[in-house]
C-alpha cells in the first residue's frame, strides 16, 4: 500500500524499462501464452490502420510532388522533384506521420486498456496464475507495435511514391518505369535503412511509453484518461527526439 | 498442506500476523472485516509482498517453495469479484492458465473438462463471449470453473457470496458442499452459511487486529 501511493518518478520508468527488457529475454518461456496478444496487436496497430495510412501517404506523396514541381519548375529543375520525395517523405515524413497515427490509435488504446485492467484488478489475476503482467501484456504489445510500425512505414513509403507518380501525371506525362528509375537513382540504401530503423525505434518508444502510463494507474478509473494524455504527449516528445537523433547519426556517417 | 504465518507483515493488510494451519478438508476463515482474510489469501498467491516475518508452506520457506512447485498446481484462487481478463473471451480466459498449468495436455481434454464443470454448475452460456457481456454472477461462477479445472492442491475462495443473489447463493452453497468432499478448500467469509455446520474447521480472525 505504501509503495502504491508513492508518486511516480523517472526511476520508476527505468525500473519498468529494466523489467520489460528482462521479460523480453524470457519471452521464449512465455511464448505459448503471449503469441496471441502479439498477433492481435499487429492486427489492430498494423492491419486496421492500413486504410488511414494509405490515404495519408497518397496525399503526402501527391502534394510533395505537386509543390515540388510548382517550385522547381520556376528554375527549369522539375526533374529533381524525386529528390524531395526521397529526402522529405522516405527519410523523414513516413516515420513521423506513421508514428503520429500509431500514437493516436494504438498508444491511446494500449494506455487506456492497461489502465482499465489495473483498475479491474486483472493484473492481480495474471499474477495469481504466476504470469508476469509485464511479460504477457507489455512485451507482447511492444513486439506487436514494432512489427506493425515497420510494415506501416514500408507501406507508407510505397503508397507515397505511387501517389507522387500519380500526381506527376497532372504536370507532365511520365512513364511509371521512368519515374521509378529516377526515384531509384536518387534513393540510397542508407536512407531506406534509416527509415526502417526509425520505424522500429518509434514503435518501441510508443508501446513502452503507453504501457508504462497504463500500468501506472493505481486504483481509480479517473486516472485512466489522465495517464492516456501523458502517454500521448510523452510519446510525441520521445519520437521527435529519437527522430532527430537517428537522422543526425546517419547524417554524421553519410 | 501445512501453512505457517510467523509474524508476517505485508504491504497490504497483514501486520505481525501469526497463524498455523493444516490446510486439509474445508477450512473457513471467519473475518467480519473481510480485509484480513482477503490479505491472507492474497499473500498466499503472491499478490501481496511480504515485508517482514516468515511464511512457510510444508515447512519450506515461501520463496524457496516455488523453486520446485508451480503456483497453479498449488493454489487455485477464486476472487471475490469473479475477475476475468477483459481482452479475452470466457473460453480464452480459461485456456490461458490451463495451458500454463498443463503444458502438454491437449485442447480436447480442456473441452471435456470444461463441459464437465459447466454442467456440474448448471451454467448455460456462450463461452465465446467477452466477460463484459455476461452477468457478474456468471463471471463469478466461471472463476470457480477456471480455478477447479487447474486441479490445485488447495482452493482459496475469497467471499464466495459476493455479487450473488439469494438463488445463486443457494446454488453455490450446494455446489461447494459437494465439492468439499474431494477438494481442499480455504474459504474467507463472514457469512454464517460457511461458519456454522459447513467447514471442518473455523478459524476466527475477529480478535486478530491489523496494527
What would you say this structure looks like, in words?
- The complex is a heterodimer of chains A (254) and B (211).
- Chain A has one domain.
- The radius of gyration of chain A is 21 Å and the shape is elongated.
- In chain A, α4 (81-119) packs antiparallel against α6 (133-171).
- Chain A is built from 9 helices and no strands.
- Chain A is an all-alpha fold and 254 residues long.
- Chain B is of the alpha/beta class and 211 residues long.
- In chain B, β7 (154-158), α7 and β8 form a beta-alpha-beta unit.
- Chain B has a 5-stranded parallel β-sheet, with helices on both faces.
- Chain B has 7 helices and 9 strands.
- The interface between A and B is medium-sized, with 23 and 25 residues.
Secondary-structure map:
The complex is a heterodimer of chains A (254) and B (211).
Chain A: H1 10-25, H2 31-46, H3 50-72, H4 81-119, H5 122-128, H6 133-171, H7 176-186, H8 189-215, H9 223-253
Helix pairs in contact in A: 1-6, 2-6, 3-4, 3-6, 4-6, 4-7, 4-8, 4-9, 6-8, 8-9
Chain B: E1 2-10, E2 17-22, E3 26-30, H1 35-44, E4 50-57, E5 60-61, H2 62-65, H3 71-74, E6 75-78, H4 90-101, H5 107-120, H6 136-149, E7 154-158, H7 166-179, E8 185-189, E9 201-204
Notable features of this structure?
heterodimer, A: 254 residues, mainly alpha, 9 helices, B: 211 residues, alpha/beta, 5-stranded parallel sheet, 4-stranded antiparallel sheet, 7 helices, 9 strands, 23% strand
Oligomer designation = heterodimer
Query: Unreliable stretches of chain B, pLDDT < 50, 5 or more residues?
Result: none
* pLDDT < 50 runs, ≥5 residues of chain A: none
Helix share bin of chain A? over 70%
For the biggest sheet of chain A, the summary is:
none
Overall mean pLDDT of chain A: 88
Structural class of chain B: alpha/beta
The interface involving the most residues is between: A-B, 23 and 25 residues
Q: Which of globular, elongated, flat, extended, rod-shaped describes the shape of chain A?
A: elongated
Amino acid at each position: 500500500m505504501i509503495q502504491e501511493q508513492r508518486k511516480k518518478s523517472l526511476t520508476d520508468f527505468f525500473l519498468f524499462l529494466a523489467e520489460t527488457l528482462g521479460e523480453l529475454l524470457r519471452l521464449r518461456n512465455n511464448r505459448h501464452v503471449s503469441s496471441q496478444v502479439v498477433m492481435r496487436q499487429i492486427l489492430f496497430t498494423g492491419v486496421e490502420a492500413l486504410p488511414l495510412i494509405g490515404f495519408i501517404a497518397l496525399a503526402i506523396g501527391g502534394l510533395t510532388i505537386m509543390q515540388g514541381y510548382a517550385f522547381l519548375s520556376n528554375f527549369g529543375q522539375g526533374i529533381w522533384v524525386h529528390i524531395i520525395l526521397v529526402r522529405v517523405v522516405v527519410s523523414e515524413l513516413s516515420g513521423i506521420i506513421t508514428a503520429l497515427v500509431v500514437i493516436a490509435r494504438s498508444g491511446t488504446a494500449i494506455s487506456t486498456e492497461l489502465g482499465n485492467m489495473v483498475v479491474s484488478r486483472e493484473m492481480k489475476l495474471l499474477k495469481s496464475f504466476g504470469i508476469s503482467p509485464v511479460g504477457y501484456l507489455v512485451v507482447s504489445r511492444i513486439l506487436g507495435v514494432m512489427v506493425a510500425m515497420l510494415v506501416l512505414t514500408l507501406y507508407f513509403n510505397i503508397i507515397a511514391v505511387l501517389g507522387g507518380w500519380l500526381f506527376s501525371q497532372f504536370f507532365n506525362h511520365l512513364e511509371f518505369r521512368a519515374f521509378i528509375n529516377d526515384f531509384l537513382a536518387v534513393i540510397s540504401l542508407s536512407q531506406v535503412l534509416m527509415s526502417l530503423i526509425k520505424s522500429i525505434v518509434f514503435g518501441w518508444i510508443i508501446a513502452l511509453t503507453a504501457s508504462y502510463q497504463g500500468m501506472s494507474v493505481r486504483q481509480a478509473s479517473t486516472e485512466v484518461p489522465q495517464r492516456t494524455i501523458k502517454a500521448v504527449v510523452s510519446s510525441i516528445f520521445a519520437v521527435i527526439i529519437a527522430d532527430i537523433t537517428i537522422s543526425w547519426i546517419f547524417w554524421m556517417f553519410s | 498442506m501445512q501453512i505457517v504465518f510467523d509474524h508476517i507483515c505485508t504491504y497490504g493488510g497483514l501486520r505481525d500476523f501469526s497463524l498455523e494451519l493444516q490446510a486439509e478438508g474445508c477450512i473457513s476463515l471467519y473475518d467480519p472485516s473481510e480485509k484480513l482474510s482477503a490479505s491472507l489469501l492474497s499473500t498466499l498467491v503472491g499478490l501481496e509482498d511480504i515485508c517482514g516475518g516468515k511464511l512457510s508452506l510444508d515447512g519450506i520457506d515461501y520463496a524457496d517453495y516455488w523453486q520446485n512447485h508451480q503456483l497453479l498446481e498449488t493454489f487455485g484462487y477464486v476472487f471475490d469479484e469473479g475477475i476475468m481478463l477483459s481482452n479475452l473471451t470466457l473460453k480464452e480466459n480459461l485456456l490461458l492458465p490451463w495451458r500454463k498449468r498443463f503444458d502438454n495436455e491437449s485442447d480436447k481434454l480442456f473441452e471435456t473438462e470444461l463441459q464437465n464443470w459447466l454442467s456440474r454448475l448448471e451454467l448455460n452460456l456462450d463461452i465465446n463471449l467477452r466477460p463484459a457481456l455476461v452477468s457478474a454472477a456468471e463471471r463469478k461462477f466461471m472463476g470457480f470453473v477456471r480455478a477447479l479445472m487447474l486441479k490445485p492442491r488447495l482452493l482459496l475462495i475469497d467471499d464466495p457470496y459476493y455479487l450473488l443473489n439469494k438463488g445463486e447463493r443457494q446454488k453455490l452453497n450446494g455446489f461447494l458442499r459437494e465439492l468439499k468432499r474431494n477438494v481442499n478448500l480455504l474459504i474467507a467469509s463472514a457469512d454464517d452459511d460457511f461458519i456454522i455446520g459447513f467447514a471442518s474447521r473455523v478459524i476466527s480472525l475477529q480478535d486478530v487486529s491489523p496494527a
